[in-house]
Amino acid sequence: MKQLVAIFLVLIMAVACNEKKTPGPGIVLFLDNVFILNQGNFTYANSSLSTYDPLTKTVEQSVFYRANGVPLGDVAQSMTINGDTAYVVVNNSGFIYAINRKTFQFISKITGFESPRNMLFVNKHKAYVSDLYGKYITVIYPLTNEVIKHIPLGRSSESMVMAEGKVFVANWSNYNQTAENNMIMVIDPETDQLIDSIQVGKEPNSMVVDSDGYLWVLCSGGYLNEEVATLWKVDPVSLTRVEKFEFEQITDNPTSLCLDQKNNLYFLNHGVFRMDISLSELPKTAFIPEGDRNFYALFIYPENQIYVSDAGNYLSNGWVYVYNSSGDETDHFEVGIIPGYFVLNR
Q1: Which residues contact 178 (CB under 8 A, 6 or more apart)?
Q2: Which pLDDT value is given to residue 174?
Q3: What is the pTM of this model?
């Protein structure tokens, strides 16, 4: 939320221009590459999709536009791959593009949302979509890419994960709601019913499930620093708290919780922090310092490569920096405006 507020303030004072590009020839795509979804500026419809091949260190820019001859839309928020189809959630435009994950060519457009954020496939016949403005989860039938129903939450929704046969939904934003945004909502995907909730810290922004099956929830404490940021370890069976970690400074704003193959947690907080899940306290120093960069999104490649985006001034093209498991930089490359989401194309 703090990042969104900063972006909106910048946009009020500046005008961003987007040079229209001519669609190019076919794009060579290799498996095990990384998609970088560039959000673009709010209301300027200048989001884009980039790809990066870790083996050849080849970068392809604006691949959606080059494949389809039309822009991606207004604020590309997140991306989910299911089979050979990639689903790009375009937040402020209020739709989801279904595209071929190998050719990037358009398949269909799913509409009927208020402000879609993330998409989670619960099985091959059903996917959930969270919403910033709507107080419900939208249920999609992926075989036809149609909206089939809504699951009332009474709150907004953001990140989603599955654990122990349940779907856990973070209530990140308090936009258009009177209740505190400090809950994880629990849904039964068999019945599409809200069955329970778990109170955590204010503004839960990201979640992961470790190899032992525990749910980890990262909470920023609110975009106005209403409370100290927290990290929670939750038992997804009993729906109870196992551990709670509090950050030291009220100004801490951790985001982008990730997990590697060795059960190390990673998150951003003006630098990249790494934490073994067996530890009893939060790390005090950054594993990868931010320096003069503006770290915005984080991704862990399966072989423990660390990808961090740099949003810069939010108006110009951003950058991605790649680090190995020792924290040494191995590559960096330019992408689109506000690189905000990574997906592995495997």
Answers
A1: none
A2: 92
A3: 0.91
